[in-house]
Amino acid sequence: MGKWRLLPEPEGKTGREHVLSKRSSQNLSSALLPGRVLVVTGMYPSPEHPAFGTFVKKQVDALILAGCPHEVLLIDGRRSRLNYLKGIWRVNQLLRTGRFGLVHAYYGLCGFVAAWQRRAPLMVSYCGSDLNPGFAGRKRAPFLSLLTNLLGQVASWRARACVVRSKEMASRLLPVVRKRTHIVTSGVDLDLFHPSARAAARSSLGWNPDHPVVLFVCADPALPAVKQPELARAAVESVRKIIPDVELKIVAGRPQVELPDYYSASDVLLLTSANEGSPN
Questions:
Q1: Residues 84, 113: contact at Cβ < 8 Å?
Q2: Phi then psi for 206, rounded to 5 degrees?
Q3: Measured on CA atoms in the order 78, 81, 84, 89, is the torsion positive or negative?
Q4: Could you identify which of 78, 115, 137, 255 might form a hypothetical disulfide with 50, taking C-beta atoms 3.0 to 4.6 angstroms apart as the criterion?
């Protein structure tokens, strides 16, 4: 993968997203969006990382289905953080074509990249560690986290609108910015995720039909420190003193289409992430 690339528009039908109703999505596209939207993100699924940034793709696909055209500029910040700086030039190059009426950046660093232009209004969606301190990317890194948070604040100052996952995240923005900040959590594809028989799900996964199961899901197969897998293991060890046969199942790096059986087969879903504003 290069330092950045413009992704093709998705084809076909997506599931029913619980972010916006179809009517409100159409009203949004017709009333607020003057043209095509440029999405700037460092997170997006790929064949190598099928679970990375799935929530971004789901939201983009749902809005395209509602009649709001998008193009996605993917910045490969995991390879080099310098690619964020190079992305400033690429965003301006794309906006000079006149194709875009709005820029939507996912994550504060991409918001900073997209803030260095005046050709189109900017909306920034914050995801967690871009406002919540302590972690940067996948590791505990106080200084880098502080820098990431500061750049996210710069982006919020320049943005026409900001989206956060929780009231706590909103409180971390400057008071003047909070007036144009909205709390919107990620949606659920109800065509994909719905209740199914636990016994059948466990049988398909080859799990013990009788043991209680605690599920820990992570998009990154490396189980980064920000997700706190050690806390999940410690919690289950404490439960095991009371329920000896309880099992912890860690599912990491799986594409979203494979996850419904894991959820249906489990008794408890455990979220121990240090910085996410809500499950993505």
A1: yes
A2: 75, 25
A3: negative
A4: 255
Distance CA(100)–CA(15), nearest Å, equals: 26
Residue 38 and residue 75 in contact, taking contact as beta carbons nearer than 8 Å: no
In this structure, are residues 69 and 63 in contact, taking their beta carbons and an 8 Å threshold? no
Cross-sheet strand order for the sheet of 161-164: 4-7, 70-75, 36-41, 100-106, 122-125, 161-164, 181-183
What residues form DSSP beta bridges with 146?
none
Left (φ > 0), alpha (ψ -120 to 50) or beta: where does 228 sit? left
16 pLDDT more than 50 = no
Quick one: which of 204, 237, 226 has its CA closest to 271? 226
| Whole-angstrom Cα Rg for the chain | 20
- Reference 117, options 58, 55, 73; nearest CA is 73
DSSP one-letter code for 152: H
Please, which residues bridge with residue 41 across strands? 74, 106
| Alpha-carbon torsion, ordered 256, 260, 261, 264, to 10 deg | 150
242 by Cβ neighbours in 10 Å (0-12 / 13-18 / 19+) ranks as exposed
Q: Whose structure tokens read 């820098």?
A: 147
- 36-90 pLDDT, tens digit per residue, is 999 999 999 988 889 999 999 999 998 898 888 999 999 998 788 889 999 999 9
169: Cα separation from own chain's centroid: 15
Q: Which two tokens stand for residue 142?
A: 């106080």
pLDDT digits (tens, 9 = 90+) for 258-280: 999 999 999 999 999 877 767 66
Residue-wise pLDDT for 242-254, tens only, equals 999 999 999 999 9
Which residue type, as a one-letter code, is found at position 249? K
Total residue count of the chain as it appears in this document: 280
Angstrom distance (rounded) from CA 17 to CA 186 = 9
